[in-house]
Automatic annotation (TrEMBL):
This is Hydrogenase expression/formation protein HypE. It comes from Singulisphaera acidiphila (strain ATCC BAA-1392 / DSM 18658 / VKM B-2454 / MOB10). The lineage of its organism: Bacteria, Pseudomonadati, Planctomycetota, Planctomycetia, Isosphaerales. Pfam families: AIRS, AIRS_C. One of its GO terms (biological process) is protein maturation. Residues 73-176 form the PurM-like N-terminal domain. Belongs to the HypE family.
Length: 362
């Protein structure tokens, strides 16, 4: 039988357990943070650039630059991200604020103290200068709030119609204290899973603007710098094993990645997962699952069971953790798989998002 149209060359990409996802060109789903993103990374980028740091697939790379006269050099956390959100301005934020928060948060959930950022701007000919000024001012304010300094950057302009107003790429550097080691490979059966607040706010805020959906109250993106919340959490509970910010692909992607990396199972309790009334209503109306909707100011923590309730109590004293909740457990059963105990009873598998629920969300 001949290779179906649209399939990738098996000699280049090998066998695939989900053949229908093997495209010979990029589709929007490859940027969704779910199954297609995972396959693109594992089949193309990891083999091309293979090294131990990259293969860990953390939100940031933690590096040490040798020793100096027998003294260990500080550990550096490094991360990079690109932002293509549409629209540029949305309730609660804009592409500039999102670019700073997204990069700072990738450093913070790795236990690092974010220090420096770079930013590259891809600008489309015809972009109003007033919009760019607004974005830059927002980025400056976000840097001040997060306690980071933007120290270098680049600007490029593309022809009218060859971009979409503004794309921003940011990179970040931070310091990781000695003795601190957070990793999605560290989860152990018996650990508990904690989320810092309601899920799905960012994705639905973006969708409400695109689709003209109105709510009784203004639904805003949750975009925020998690640096201070992480500091409070680690000061109170150094035993935290891992943290992840569930951005593209939502809680589902973050937990599937953790289950796979640690070789454990994850069991969630649907009744315990905090979802705002507007988000829940919008998801029901649009046929979306909040577990797959992006967040930009939330985190998930893996913590030993004996420390879980204390951690939740501490998080609830912080403005960004006031709706923190214990949402599930790490289990030995079904390694690499996430399951959900539903409100009405029964259990279902929470798989990686197979396509693109909400494109251009960050």
């Amino acid at each position: 039988m001949s290779e179906p149209a649209g399939m990738l060359d098996p000699e280049l990409f090998g066998a695939c357990p989900v053949p229908q996802s093997r495209y010979d060109q990029i589709v929007l789903g490859h940027g969704g943070g779910g199954l297609l993103t995972n396959e693109l990374i594992q089949r193309l980028f990891v083999p091309a650039f293979r090294n131990d740091v990259l293969e860990a697939l953390e939100d940031q790379a933690t590096l040490r630059f040798g020793t100096d006269n027998g003294v260990k050099a500080p550990r550096i956390a490094f991360t990079t991200d690109a932002f293509v959100v549409r629209p540029l301005f949305f309730p609660g934020g804009d592409i500039g604020k999102l670019a700073v928060h997204g990069t700072v948060n990738d450093l913070a959930v790795g236990g690092a103290r974010p220090l420096f950022l770079s930013a590259a701007f891809i600008l489309e000919e015809g972009l109003p200068l007033a919009d760019l000024k607004r974005i830059v001012a927002s980025m400056r304010s976000a840097c001040d709030e997060a306690g980071v300094t933007l120290v270098t950057g680049d600007t490029k302009v593309v022809d009218r119609g060859k971009g979409d107003k503004v794309f921003i790429t940011t990179s970040g550097l931070g310091l990781v204290p000695e003795g601190r080691s957070l990793s999605i490979r560290s989860a152990r059966p018996g650990d508990c899973l904690v989320v810092s607040g309601t899920i799905g706010d960012h994705g639905i805020a973006i969708m409400s603007v695109r689709e003209g959906i109105e709510f009784e109250t203004v639904l805003e993106s949750d975009t925020a710098p998690l640096t201070d919340l992480v500091r409070v959490m680690l000061d109170a509970c150094p035993s935290i094993r891992a943290m992840r910010d569930p951005t593209r692909g939502g809680v589902s992607s973050a937990l599937n990645e953790l289950a796979e990396a640690s070789g454990v199972g994850v069991r969630l309790d649907e009744a315990a997962i905090p979802v705002g009334a507007e988000v829940r209503g919008a998801c029901e109306m649009l046929g979306l699952d909040p577990l797959y909707v992006a967040n930009e100011g939330k985190l998930i923590a893996v913590v030993p069971a004996e420390d879980a309730e204390r951690l939740v109590a501490v998080m609830r004293t912080h403005p960004l953790g006031r709706n923190a909740a214990l949402i599930g457990q790490v289990v030995a059963e079904h390694p690499g798989m996430v399951t959900l105990r539903s409100i009405v009873g029964g259990e279902r598998v929470v798989t990686l998002l197979s396509g693109e629920q909400l494109p251009r969300i960050c």
